[in-house]
Design brief:
The protein is of the alpha/beta class and 151 residues long. Helices cover 42% and strands 15% of the residues. It contains 5 helices and 4 strands, in the order H-E-H-E-H-E-H-E-H.
């Protein structure tokens, strides 16, 4: 999986794999980990919508996986005002390894994915919130023992 645009794009097997990895990463927090999949990478957090928990969780997660995060608020870049989303995607793709985007329009995520050349994670749009859904599913697994048979 290169991008996370919507939870609907994920198969049951991919969701199970993500939840298993999340469980493992959570269990190993604070321990020295040799495999740092984001080592040497810089990821942009492009937030047109502010959020304390989302920003902190992604910054900490990127750091704990060995990477570095650059926070870009709507005041820091011109995405969608003065510079098209497509222009921003092309430009950002030249400098960083991935983008976490929290914005209003789902079409902004779709354009970034289509035009950019880096992985994109949808951290919230007016239409989708796939990371929250995955976190909710992780909670169901932790508290209720699994997803099978749950509605």
């Amino acid at each position: 999986m290169k991008h996370l645009e919507t939870v609907e794009q994920l198969s049951s097997a991919e969701i199970a794999e993500i939840l298993a990895l999340a469980k493992e990463l959570k269990a190993n927090r604070g321990r020295e980990v040799k495999d740092l999949p984001l080592r040497g990478q810089t990821w942009a957090l492009i937030f047109n919508k502010a959020s304390t928990r989302t920003r902190v969780s992604f910054e900490v997660g990127i750091r704990e996986l060995g990477g570095h995060a650059i926070y870009l608020s709507q005041n820091d870049i011109q995405m969608g005002r003065g510079e098209t989303v497509a222009d921003t995607a092309r430009t950002i793709s030249r400098y960083i390894h991935g983008a976490v985007i929290r914005t209003y329009a789902q079409s902004d995520i779709e354009t970034f994915v289509r035009v950019g050349s880096i992985p994109v994670i949808n951290a919230l749009t007016d239409d989708e919130h796939p990371c929250q859904i995955l976190a909710d599913l992780q909670t169901v697994v932790e508290k209720l023992g699994g997803l099978k048979g749950k509605k």
